[in-house]
Amino acid sequence: MSARQESTAPGGVRLTSAQGRWVLATAVLGSGMAMLDSTVVNVALPRIGEDLNADLAVLQWTVTAYMLTLSSLILLGGALGDRFGRRRVFVIGVVWFAAASLLCGLAPHAGVLIAARALQGVGGALLTPGSLALIQAVFHPDDRARAVGAWSGLGGVAAAVGPFIGGWLVDGAGWRWVFFLNVPLAVVCVAVALRHVPETRERDARERRGFDVPGAVLGALALAGVTYALIAAPGGGASPGVILPAVIGVLLGVLFLRVERRSPDPMLPPAIFGIRLFSAVNVVTVCVYAAFGGFFFLVVLQLQVVVGYSALQAGTALLPTTVLMLLLSARSGALGQRIGPRIPLTVGPLLCAAGMLLMTRAGRGASYPTDVLPALVVLGAGMVTLVAPLTSTVLASVDVDRAGLASGINNAAARAASLMAVAALPLLAGFGPEAYRSADEFGAAFRRAMPLCAGILVVGGLIAWLTVRTPALRAAEPAPAERCHPECVYHCGVSAPPLDPGEARALEAERPPAGGEGPPGGSNSR
């Protein structure tokens, strides 16, 4: 089948064919570009602040502006691909992402950088769900598991080399090249996609009634209002400029929930939260990824500002967590299937909490082997224990037809939690606007922040112990390799759970039952 021909039939491309290798390369390039960006930007934050003469709030917005649009629109992005063509929307996302990256690199001041990062998140919302959707739609069913495994393995290389590339660029050519790097990658990705990837879309796409654009807009504005208030609060106190955005954000959040209840095609169907296991695991997800988001935002600054590492050293220092997830996530997923998710979802957050508390030893003059590495090893062990069973439990908590929707909601919840943590944690821990310019001030605030992150993880583990009663994931469920390969969890497990590559993606073809408890055999009967 020619890449220029549109196919609505099930995928038939074999992984061993020349076209199959090109399709896999396209998916890896696209997702790898987004993974590299998320890895290297945090490493560049101190240099960005120094070059733009920016305070801590600007560094927060550099991270949160991207996560704001990405988390708000990622469900809509998956639905657009299903409706208008997965290759088309994927290519648009790659081009959009690259153009916004170029604008980030050229930004003359902080305002332009923050706006460009928000635009970059829009491209990411189109690109991220499209990467796995291409694999699911194009490859023959017999080859999909191997294709996802290859995608995750090659993506793991991007995650592993990201700190090296980011640190090397920041210390050498400068932080702007962290963003410029995306442009040549995008050019190659688009050229290969247009030449070798066939177009696919849902068979009933033309019969769909519409998209939940009002829900997406309200969700984004609600998050933006609350985020603005949290970031502005350290400098503005209880001023109208802080209180008013917070109130507006909360009101818009309430309006968002009302719109979702009444929408014929809701982005976030309220009925799915009537499934108790699904709701419980999403609460655990919010706790876990809020702690991860706050930790990884602050720890790179701590290593550079307080410990005295270069950007390359700081990025490389975090490599043990990636290596542990690369080596052990598949085994963790298999263990979760055998013993059930309750123990991993309880023990994993507790190990992560211990790792974050150990990181408080990484102060001025800290030794990497004795102060930094043990904390990262314990944290990595907790992530290995936690991430794969968390993803599998989300997928197993709903019927197969709603696996894509459940995975998308879980992914968006994780990203929104990270966003709110990056906005709120500096306020709660007492970071001043200029804290990252003073090693003593930043180090003291970091030591206050880590117990807060650890406490959120302990709450998540406790919720898992009290609410997750499933003895084991059902044997009747498709193997994780067919729905979310266990090895793929390390590919994006630090920033958010992996998206399910199944056919049901952001919007489900059939609405949940009115009772909200799911079909017979759903989570409540397990």
UniProtKB/TrEMBL annotation:
InterPro entries: EmrB-like (IPR004638), MFS (IPR011701), MFS_dom (IPR020846), MFS_trans_sf (IPR036259). It is a multi-pass membrane protein. GO terms for biological process: response to antibiotic. PROSITE patterns: MFS. Residues 515-526 have a biased composition (Gly residues). Its main location: membrane. Residues 23-472 form the Major facilitator superfamily (MFS) profile domain. Residues 502-511 have a biased composition (Basic and acidic residues). Pfam families: MFS_1. It is found in: Cell membrane. The chain crosses the membrane at residues 21-45, 57-77, 89-108, 114-135, 147-169, 175-194, 215-236, 242-259, 280-301, 307-330, 342-360, 372-400, 412-429, 449-468. The keyword Chloroplast does not apply. Keywords: Antibiotic resistance, Cell membrane, Membrane, Transmembrane, Transmembrane helix, Transport. This is DHA2 family efflux MFS transporter permease subunit. The lineage of its organism: Bacteria, Bacillati, Actinomycetota, Actinomycetes, Kitasatosporales.
